[in-house]
């Protein structure tokens, strides 16, 4: 197949738009894939409905008119072009054929759009997976760093733990057993830089335990605070901190 994912070919298969080799490979896949079989059946039914909706009934007198015209059409010998007059006599863009063609074009547009949507959805999923993997690697790098140092404090009915790697200049916040914030609110993390508070990320709602890579570099911050803020966070704290954690000093044995 020309694509690595046969699940994206259901629309093209239903429209008979696959080359012979791809059609053969897809039919082999189709025999063992229930979800693709359902999609092909739905696409085929949709194409039939589109064609039916775009068709118009044939006039009862049309058959007689066609037969009368056939008797007056001059036959062309093999290898000779049809007379110009005969070519001009064939009307273009009229009658049921035009509507059938329009229905096919509409169906192709529908299935093409579905295939594009499926492809974009798969791309989004891959990008999200890559971001999640990179985030996990960064968290693991801080937690497992030789110079990792911690501070813990009780807050919101649970425990908040700050892990800092001076060498990586990054920090991780680990929440354990913390109560859910009030409805429409979130827990927000802050770096304390002298007399100002710098936003450092949000804790997810509905999870008592979580590990968050704090946003931005530690960059000489003296402490970390946690406040309750409106959903989406704030530029500056709007409530008193639930807890304050001093940034641990770099261990003396780590060079």
TrEMBL record:
Transmembrane segments: none annotated. This is Regulator of SigK. The keyword Transmembrane helix applies. One of its GO terms (molecular function) is sigma factor antagonist activity. It comes from Streptomyces collinus (strain DSM 40733 / Tue 365). Keywords: Cell membrane, Membrane, Transcription, Transcription regulation, Transmembrane, Transmembrane helix. One of its GO terms (biological process) is regulation of translation. Residues 101-241 form the Anti-sigma K factor RskA C-terminal domain. Its main location: membrane. It is found in: Cell membrane; Membrane. Residues 9-37 form the Anti-sigma-K factor RskA N-terminal domain. The keyword DNA repair does not apply. It is a single-pass membrane protein. One of its GO terms (cellular component) is plasma membrane. Residues 227-255 are annotated as: Disordered. Gene3D superfamilies: Anti-sigma factor, zinc-finger domain. It comes from the Bacteria. InterPro entries: Anti-sigma-K/W_factor, Anti_sigma_zinc_sf, RskA_C, RskA_N.
């Amino acid at each position: 197949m020309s694509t690595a994912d046969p699940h994206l070919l259901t629309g093209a298969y239903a429209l008979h738009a696959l080359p012979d080799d791809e059609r053969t490979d897809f039919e082999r896949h189709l025999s063992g894939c229930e979800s693709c079989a359902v999609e092909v059946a739905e696409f085929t039914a949709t194409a039939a409905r589109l064609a039916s909706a775009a068709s118009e009934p044939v006039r009862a007198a049309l058959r007689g008119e066609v037969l009368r015209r056939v008797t007056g059409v001059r036959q062309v010998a093999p290898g000779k072009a049809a007379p110009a007059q005969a070519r001009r006599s064939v009307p273009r863009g009229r009658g049921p054929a035009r509507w059938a063609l329009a229905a096919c074009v509409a169906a192709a547009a529908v299935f093409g759009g579905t295939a594009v949507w499926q492809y974009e959805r798969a791309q989004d999923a891959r990008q999200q997976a890559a971001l999640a993997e990179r985030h996990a690697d960064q968290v693991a790098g801080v937690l497992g760093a030789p110079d990792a140092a911690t501070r813990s404090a009780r807050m919101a009915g649970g425990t908040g733990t700050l892990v800092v790697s001076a060498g990586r200049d990054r920090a991780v916040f680990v929440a354990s057993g913390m109560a859910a914030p009030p409805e429409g609110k979130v827990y927000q993390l802050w770096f304390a830089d002298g007399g100002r508070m710098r936003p450092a990320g949000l804790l997810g709602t509905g999870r008592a335990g979580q590990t968050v890579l704090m946003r931005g570099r530690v960059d000489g911050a003296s402490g970390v605070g946690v406040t309750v803020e409106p959903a989406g966070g704030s530029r500056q704290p709007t409530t008193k901190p639930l807890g304050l954690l001093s940034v641990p000093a770099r261990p003396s044995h780590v060079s």
